[in-house]
Amino acid sequence: MLTAVFLLSSSPVTNKKPIAVVAGDGIGKEVIPNAIEVVKASGAAVEFTHFDWGADRHLADGTTIPPDAFQMLARDFDAIFVGALGDPRVPTNIHAKEILLGMRFKMDLYANVRPVRLLDASLCPLKNATTADINFTVIRENTEGVYMDMGGVFKFGTPDELATQEDINTRKGVERVIRFAFEYARSNGRKKVLMSDKSNVMTYAGGLWQRVFKEVAKEYPDINTQHMYVDALCLQMIRQPQSLDVVVTNNMFGDIITDLAAALQGGLGMAASGNIHPGRTSMFEPVHGSAPPIAGKNMANPMGAILTAAMMLAHIGLAAEAQKIEDAVTQAVREKKKTADVGGSMGTRECAAWIGERVAR
Ligand SMILES: NC(=O)c1ccc[n+]([C@@H]2O[C@H](COP(=O)([O-])OP(=O)(O)OC[C@H]3O[C@@H](n4cnc5c(N)ncnc54)[C@H](O)[C@@H]3O)[C@@H](O)[C@H]2O)c1
C-alpha cells in the first residue's frame, strides 16, 4: 500500500487520468478493488493510486489523514474514489470524520449528488413501481448545516444538562448549491427543481432557503420549480416518486432522504454518490457505510461502488466507458447475477467479475 507522504502526480507519459483511491474500512476494502477491476475492464484511460487511510492505519500509527493531503489530492488527481469509513475498533470515529468530512469540508465539495434510479422493477419495494417511476436526483448541501459541529453542552451529566447543535446556513452556501441544482437540471435534460426544507418551524434558516430559491429560479425560466416540506417529501417519495426530478435540500435532510431513496432503488448496496465542486477535484463514494457485520465475508453488494465508479468516469469526461459499466450493471440485475441483499446468490467477487466480463465484451 502507498502512504500519504509520497506524491504521484498526473501521468504525462501515459496520458491516463490520475485517480486517488481510499478503500477505507470494512466492506469498502472489498467493493472498491472489485469496482476498480470493472473500470479496468472498460478500458478507461485512468491510473489508480491507493492510499491506506482508514482504521487499520489509524490504529497502527495514529494517522487519520496527513495535514497536507487535501492540497495534494486537489493538485495531483482528477478524482478521488472512496469506499467507506467506520470501524468498531475506533469508537470515536475520529478517522472517518477527519478523512470523509475533511474531504467534503476542506476541499469545499459543496454539492453531494445522489442519483436515484431504479435499474429493474424487481428491486423496488413499492407495489407496481416501474423503472420509469423512480428516476430522480437528490442534490444535498454538503458543507454546512448541523454537520459543522458547532454547539456545546452546559451542566454536562446533570439533570439540568443543556445541549445545543447549531444549524449553519450561509447566503453563499445556500445560493451556490441551489444554483448547482438548476445547472444540473439544465445539463441533464431535467425539467423541474424541488427545494425541500422545514421552513414552517425552522423559520430563520428556512426563510433564507426560500428567498434564495425564488431569486435563483428567476435565472432559469426554462426549469419549473416546486417547494415541499421535508416530511411531505418523504410521503411523496413513496406515494408518487414519478413526480420527482431534481431535489435540492440541506445537509441533514439530504442525508436522511437519500437512505429512503436508496430503499426505492433496492437498498444501500445499490446507491451511488458524488461530492462535487465544479472545476475542482471531486470525490465519489457509494452511499453505504462499512457494514462491519458482513465485512470480509464476500457478501457485500459491489453494485453501488461500481455505479459510483461509472459516475466518476462520466464526471472526468469518460462518458462512453461509464455508459458501458451502467449497462452491464443493469444487465446483471436483470439476469439475477447479484448478491443476497438484492435477492441474488452471488458473492461480491463473483458479481463484480460477471459485470467486468460484460463490460470487456
Ligand atoms: N460514507 C461512509 O463512509 C459511511 C456512511 C454510513 C455509515 N458509515 C459508517 O459505517 C459503519 C456502519 O454503519 P451503518 O450500519 O449505519 O450503515 P451501513 O451502510 O454500513 O449498513 C447499513 C445496513 O445496510 C447493509 N449494507 C450496507 N451496504 C451494503 C452492501 N454494499 N451490500 C449489502 N448490504 C449492505 C448493512 O449490512 C447493514 O445491514 C459505521 O461506522 C458508520 O459510521 C460510513
The profile of the biggest β sheet is: 10 strands, mixed
Count of DSSP strands: 12
CATH homologous superfamily classification of the largest domain: Isopropylmalate Dehydrogenase
Number of helices: 11
Class computed from helices, strands and strand pairing: alpha/beta
Low-confidence stretches: 1-11
Oligomer: single chain
The CATH class of the largest domain turns out to be Alpha Beta
Please give the CATH architecture of the largest domain: 3-Layer(aba) Sandwich
What is the averaged pLDDT score? 95
Order of helices and strands: EHEHHEHEEEEHEHEHEHEEHHH
Global Rg: 20 Å
The coarse overall form would be: globular
Strand order of the largest sheet: 2-1-3-12-11-4-5-10-8-9
Percent helix: 25-40%
Ligand identities: nicotinamide-adenine-dinucleotide
Q: Note the gap between the termini.
A: 31 Å
Count of spatially separate domains = 2
- Which fold name is given in CATH as the topology of the largest domain? Isopropylmalate Dehydrogenase
Content of β-strand: 15-25%
Describe this entry's structure for a reader.
The protein has 361 residues and is of the alpha/beta class. It has two domains: 1-108 and 285-361, 3-Layer(aba) Sandwich (Isopropylmalate Dehydrogenase); 125-265, 3-Layer(aba) Sandwich (Isopropylmalate Dehydrogenase). It contains eleven helices and twelve strands. The chain has helices at 28-42, 55-61, 69-76, 94-106, 171-187, 203-217, 230-239, 251-265, 303-315, 319-334, 348-360, and strands at residues 17-24, 46-50, 79-84, 111-117, 135-141, 151-154, 162-165, 192-197, 224-229, 246-249, 272-276, 282-286. The chain has a ten-stranded mixed beta sheet, sandwiched between helices. The protein has a two-stranded antiparallel sheet with strand order 6-7. β11 (272-276) and β12 form a beta hairpin. α1 packs parallel to α11, α7 packs parallel to α8 (251-265) and α9 (303-315) runs antiparallel to α10. The longest helix is centred in the middle third of the chain and has 17 residues, at 171-187. Residues 1-11 have low confidence and may be disordered. Bound molecules: nicotinamide-adenine-dinucleotide (NAD). Residues 27, 31, 84-86, 93, 96, 100, 268-269, 285, 288-294, 300-301, 304, 341 line the site of nicotinamide-adenine-dinucleotide (NAD).
